Predict the structure.
Amino acid sequence: MSIVAAFEEFCHDYVGWWLDGILEKIDAVDCVQRHAGLWGVVDEIGQDEVQRLMSEYFAPPPEVPSDYAARLIRDWEMADERDRHRWTGELPPVQQVVVAQKLPHRPAQSTVDAFRYVMRVGDPERLTAWLRNHPDDAPALLEMLEAA
């Protein structure tokens, strides 16, 4: 690793300590400048280049606008054709609605077994009462009876 690359890494570390509140900015800059002289970085690239590198690293972070989140959401919604109408005044796009077909009712196996038992008993009144108590299952059960 070259001395300049090591110096840049050193700058990066001190910037992190400054941003984390461990060091004041002036103390971090002074320490980096002192090490630039001790390590021979000033002799190798010159004081102006050392100052330029330090100014890049220690530049204040860019200001984030107060409406940054709202702008971000607007940009995302403008990029999505499903949401663009919220900002442009256009009509919302027509969305395809998927209609799921309802599968025919199928009685549980225990209900089928109970139906067969009541059939074997041979009492028409009992069978009628049992079917009355199972209105959702009755059509399918009677269909099974006709098929047999």
Observations:
- The mean pLDDT is 88.
- The first helix runs from residue 3 to 19.
- DSSP finds nine helices and no strands in the chain.
- The radius of gyration is 40 Å.
